[in-house]
Write a structure and sequence with these properties.
The protein contains six helices and six strands; from the N terminus they run ββαββββααααα. It is α+β, with helices and mostly antiparallel strands.
């Protein structure tokens, strides 16, 4: 089963893609990411993507890695998404939705005449991303739900528990990771987790650490 018709494996995806550096933005395979596009360079990026293969790479800037404010150094791993919804507002903004296809590793950034950045990328290390629900059976679902319950209770949030209970493990873990309020490093750790089981473990660990910080208590060793 493929993410989209035509994208059944690494060889089907474009090797050169536009990238959208956005801190805290985590896209995962088969996840849905809404974006409000208003900067001229990214409006041009969307225009060009719609004229070609509709692929945009979401990637986080590495604030500690150097570069310039307009061109910060990028993390080496991002996720390619396809524009699956598009609307134009009356004030010139684009409202789009990306559906995640596969993670990629940046091989090099290309010199380009476009206002936005483009990279040569490889998907080979992430072939399992093209298989829907791969590794679901290994996920500690109860651990994920317990961490979520504790976080919701601590922060007095409202959630759709019926929808959560019905969600398959891949959709549950990936959606919670994408929506989580954690920082760039934590989001990157979730993105780079080798499989769904490990991603769920990272999500649980980060949530538990956040709860400890929020309570002001020190973790105890058992």
């Amino acid at each position: 089963m493929s993410t989209h018709a035509g994208y059944k494996g690494p060889a089907d995806c474009p090797a050169v893609i536009p990238v959208f550096p956005l801190p805290g933005a985590l896209l995962l395979p088969r996840g849905q990411m809404p974006l409000n596009i208003f900067e001229p360079r990214y409006l041009a990026m969307v225009d060009d993507a719609l004229r070609t293969d509709r692929i945009i790479g979401m990637i986080q800037p590495d604030a500690e890695g150097g570069g310039s404010p307009m061109a910060p150094r990028l993390y080496r791993v991002g996720c390619a998404g396809r524009v699956t919804q598009f609307a134009e507002t009356g004030d010139g903004r684009y409202l789009i939705s990306l559906t995640g296809i596969s993670r990629f590793r940046v091989e090099s950034e290309l010199a380009t005449t476009t206002a936005y950045r483009r990279c040569q990328v490889s998907y080979d290390a992430f072939a399992a991303d093209f298989e829907a629900r791969a590794g679901e059976e290994a996920v500690d679902r109860e651990g994920v739900l317990k961490a979520l319950r504790d976080f919701v209770e601590s922060n007095e949030l409202q959630v759709d528990w019926a929808g959560i209970e019905e969600a398959p493990n891949e959709a549950l873990v990936n959606a919670l990771c994408m929506m989580s309020p954690f920082g760039v490093r934590e989001k990157q750790a979730m993105l780079e987790a080798p499989d769904l089981k490990t991603r769920a473990e990272v999500l649980i660990a980060v949530t538990e650490m956040e709860l400890v910080r929020g309570s002001g208590s020190e973790p105890t060793l058992q």
